[in-house]
Fold:
Amino acid sequence: MSLCVVLFSCNNTPKEQALKETANDSLVKSTASGECEKLYAQAKASDEILMRALTLDKTVATKAINDFNAYASNCKTDSLAPVFLIKAGQVAQAIGSFTQAQAMLNKCINEHTQFKNREAAIFLLAQLYDDPKMLNNEEEAKKLYEQVISEYPKTSYATDSRAAIQNLGKTDEQLIQEFLKKKQ
Structure:
């Protein structure tokens, strides 16, 4: 099964610019001491390093995960907290730290129930469980895919979840054969 990667970066696309503006507004409100501003600067710097990197260095990745988690843990009310948890989960997955990825995505899902992209976090977690090289728990993957379908039925993640459920338990060879039959 292919892995769908959702990257949230600090570039200037319209959606990301809106997130930045929201973050800047909420950062000012979140703390008088400036702790969130400092943590945000560290998380953003780590994110920029990762985005420029041609290869993923495990030490740099681990620092980024820690920076992302520190920001999300200490600035929970900020709108970027769940975004940084997803980033932490994706980076952890990329370096093969699947239980850490699971923890970051679970934290995003459970602590940020109103996050506008929560279905992405649930779907990414389902994929972690679905992949035999990662968490390898198809039963848990199916529950999470069904949660996406139930809670977010009109999203592309629900469509992808339906397809993923149909492919649970199939080998790559079986999937290829099915694809080739459909092409004929």
Remarks:
- The chain is about 70% helix and 0% strand.
- Residues 12-101 form one domain.
- The chain has two domains: 12-101, 117-184.
- The two ends are 21 Å apart (CA to CA).
